[in-house]
Amino acid sequence: MRRSPLFAAAALTLFAAHPACAADPNEARAQIDAGFERAWPELEALYRDLHANPELAFQEHRTASVLAKKLKAIGFEVSEGVGKTGVVGVLRNGTGPVILIRTELDGLPMEEKTGLPYASRALREKDGKETLVAHSCGHDIHMTWWIGTAQALASMQDRWHGTLVFVAQPAEEIVSGAQAMLDDGLYTRFAHPDYAFAAHIGSDPAGSVTIKQGFTTSASDAVRIVFHGQGAHGSMPDKSIDPVVMGARFVTDVQTVISRQKDPMKFGVVTVGAFHAGTVGNIIPDQSELLLTVRSYDPDVRKQLLDGIDTTAQAVAAMAKAPTPDVEHQRGTGSVINEPELGAQAADMLAKALGPSRITLIPASEPGWTASEDYSEFADNGKVRSTYFSIGGTLPETEQRYKAEGKPVPVNHSPYFAPDPLTSIKTGVETLVLATLMVAGN
Ligand SMILES: [Zn+2]
Ligand SMILES: [Zn+2]
């Protein structure tokens, strides 16, 4: 992640006089930390339990029920089974803004190799086979700071007013759980939020908080194309309509959508990751299948790339006098977009509460992260004001150890990814509670 030298100079002074967030964020932070210290033994036990018992996308039944029970005990009105395995908790505290705080529930189909005493050995079913599952993206850390945040805000009701909507979404790793919850009436059966906050753990220094203004993560889309030809003997191409040639032409031509149509200053990727056709050399097959991934930040670029893929596929088939190809768009997810002003306000407030050395604000003019995240769906096309925080989990001694071995610190989805639980969870609680007080503080 990139560090911005602009932060101290610009953002701090620009928003220094903002009236929200409890006149004194530093004092609020002291109260949060005192509560956190008391809650830590219970939170640590929760974290270890979630870590050792990960579940896959849309199968998070145990995880959801553990969180639902905790949230009920804190005093939230809890609904389960929203968007299959999602959990929603509502806490009303007078009139004021509706604030959504989100965590993910799912783990990854992979083996954990951290060697931690509570490392996962959980086996779950995937495509009819048993597979090892691990929380190698850190969603167990997120669930724990989500519960810690709920506890803190419930115990500080004199400091804020409004309605909290705590959302635990399934299936983030396959970018479909957020949409599943929205399709199941998240914003109609419960309240439509004015604000939304979420945070993701990463391998930055432990205790650091980074906010990217503007486009933060990339939009991700998948496309499947089938070219229909006419099979024939390999020696008689004139009797065929060759789907291998159509596929090959498509792979090459579609790159001109990137190089000749898209603004070269804007991020966009079209990758054909799979091309399936034919069996042996002397048979011209009757169809070819191509699987694509498409990444972008800007919604206009996203549309331009998806339209360009359609046009290229149609044109390639027309040139071969072939039937219309099948072009199937598998719904992906849009970019997470941090509203620049709210992001700067949050960075300013966190710098006061946690100290400026822990906070980084990356301006909108710099690129975001190429990974994708379906938290973007909760922003409801910009109708919800939102900030997505990135939180560091690597202790200095861990960084030193990897440096001495000449290896990079393991990142999310590595089998060795092991952020420090105490610093990470505490920073997550501080960040999400302070962000809520910033927009709903008395
Ligand atoms: Zn992940
Ligand atoms: Zn993740």
What are the SSEs and their pairings?
Layout: H1 6-9, H2 11-14, H3 25-52, H4 61-74, E1 77-82, E2 86-93, E3 98-104, E4 123-126, E5 129-132, H5 139-155, E6 162-169, H6 177-183, H7 186-189, E7 195-205, E8 209-212, E9 214-215, E10 219-228, E11 232-233, H8 243-253, H9 255-261, E12 268-277, E13 283-284, E14 287-296, H10 299-319, E15 326-333, E16 337-338, H11 340-354, E17 359-362, E18 385-394, H12 396-404, H13 421-440
Parallel strand pairs: 3-6, 3-7, 7-18, 8-17
Antiparallel strand pairs: 1-2, 2-6, 4-5, 8-18, 9-16, 10-14, 10-15, 11-13, 12-14
Helix pairs in contact: 3-5, 3-11, 3-13, 4-5, 5-13, 8-10, 11-13
Bound molecules: zinc ion (2 copies).
| Rg of Cα set | 24 Å
- How many extended strands? 18
Any idea of the CATH topology of the largest domain?
Answer: Aminopeptidase
Percent range of helical residues:
25-40%
* Global shape: elongated
Total count of helical runs of at least 4 residues: 13
Q: What is the CATH homologous superfamily assignment of the largest domain?
A: Zn peptidases
Fraction in beta strands: 25-35%
Quick check: average pLDDT?
A: 93
Biggest sheet details: 8 strands, mixed
Q: Which second-level CATH architecture of the largest domain applies? A: 3-Layer(aba) Sandwich
The unique ligands bound to this protein are: zinc ion
Supply the CATH class of the largest domain: Alpha Beta
Total number of distinct structural domains: 2
Distance between the termini: 34 Å
Largest sheet strand order: 1-2-6-3-7-18-8-17
Q: Unreliable segments (pLDDT under 50, ≥5 consecutive)?
A: 1-22
